[in-house]
């Protein structure tokens, strides 16, 4: 009986101290990108982003950070360009509706710097990537910033020949509340 009581107490403590999911603040959360085209920076963003995380600096082994982006929500400020890059040669919206990021492991680098090992899926192609994270967390809010670069050709987001850079700079900001 005492053994069952102790196990029950330990189990309920584990449930109350486990990492709790943050509620995304849609006004403060965004994914923006920059790519060079004809030597000029083209900026854009995705308007429909869902990031799920239970990040907790004290419980990294239980923490995760996953994201889902609706491809059709891309915006570069020029509607005809947006429609063009949704075609088969680029994002192939007809066959691939979402971009997905799934965390594998989060590691601490220093007090506010972390490293996210994750799988990124674009156009049905999955690659493992490492994303540096800067995190500011208190009991009620968390802000996660990520700045990294991917090669668009790794995911067969092609087109553009020699005038479009292969490197895409991506900046993510997530704001969450309890």
Label the overall shape: elongated
How would you spell out the order of helices and strands? Answer: HEEEEEEHEEEEE
Number of helices: 2
User: How many E strands?
Assistant: 11
Through-space gap between termini: 37 Å
Mean pLDDT comes to 90
Low-pLDDT runs of 5+ residues are: 5-17
Main sheet record? 11 strands, antiparallel
Written description of the protein model:
This protein has 178 residues and is mostly beta strands. Helix content is 13%, strand content 48%. It has helices at residues 2-17, 79-85, and strands at residues 23-24, 30-37, 40-46, 49-53, 65-70, 74-75, 98-108, 113-122, 125-137, 141-151, 167-177. The two termini are 37 Å apart.
Topology:
Elements: H1 2-17, E1 23-24, E2 30-37, E3 40-46, E4 49-53, E5 65-70, E6 74-75, H2 79-85, E7 98-108, E8 113-122, E9 125-137, E10 141-151, E11 167-177
Antiparallel strand pairs: 1-11, 2-3, 2-11, 3-6, 4-5, 5-7, 7-8, 8-9, 9-10, 10-11
